[in-house]
User: Fold this.
Amino acid sequence: MSELVFLNGTYVERSAAAISPDDRGFIFADGIYEVTKFYNGKPFRLADHLERLKRSLNEIDINYPHVSELEAISLNLLKKNNLMDKHAGVYWQISRGAHPRIHHFPTDIKPTLYAFAFPLPTAEEKLEKGIKVVVQEDIRWKRCDIKSVSLLPNTMLYNEAVKKGAGESILVRDGYVTEATHSGLFAVKNGVLITRPLSNLILPSITRKVVLELCAKNQLPFEEKLFTEAELKEMEEVFICGTGSEIMPVVEVDDICIGSGAPGPVTRKIQQLFFAAVNQL
Assistant:
């Protein structure tokens, strides 16, 4: 079956899509990306994803004036790839563009836009039973608030989790938990939901934002504060969250059982509220 992608204004077969070897996304990882989930053709928090995309572009000084066109491009990709009636993701990547290799940002350059759609089903069994995670040192750069395509540290850390039979790596920097390699992180202590405050060291996760909104709307207590690896392992409940992860319970951290070893009541409540919001699309 053929697959159509979008590259610089044209829908083409994936096998025919090509960029210049001088593209700065290829040479320097000089670009940003977003992934938005569509439930049966309906986007979840599209406006938030677009705003975060624009923020990331601004932070690395890429001038891309066509962000408003991404919704239509995404829907076309879903239609052209027969994904309108499925759970699917759409990936957008904007690099600074092609230019002979120099270390500063060139001004005479046109950004490259690459986008594609792909199946992104809900991991129902994992959502029901929970996953195991491992803890690793956060070796990423100090601008994790930018959704950069420079993901080698993330993939190295996640690959270690895979080798250990785990579903994610939770990261620790300077003694405190930050987030996971491609997910936000929440924990529960004394019935209170806890997550790290936003800073340059974590991504402003859209799903994190949704969880906090759901807590506020439903009178569920929460705190934004730092906590250590040792404190993480003593939490009553832990879950990761993200566009692909949704609300994913964590039942084991480094072979240490979290709570009862099954998803806890607060996690279940957040799952229920999250998917109720999805069902309202």
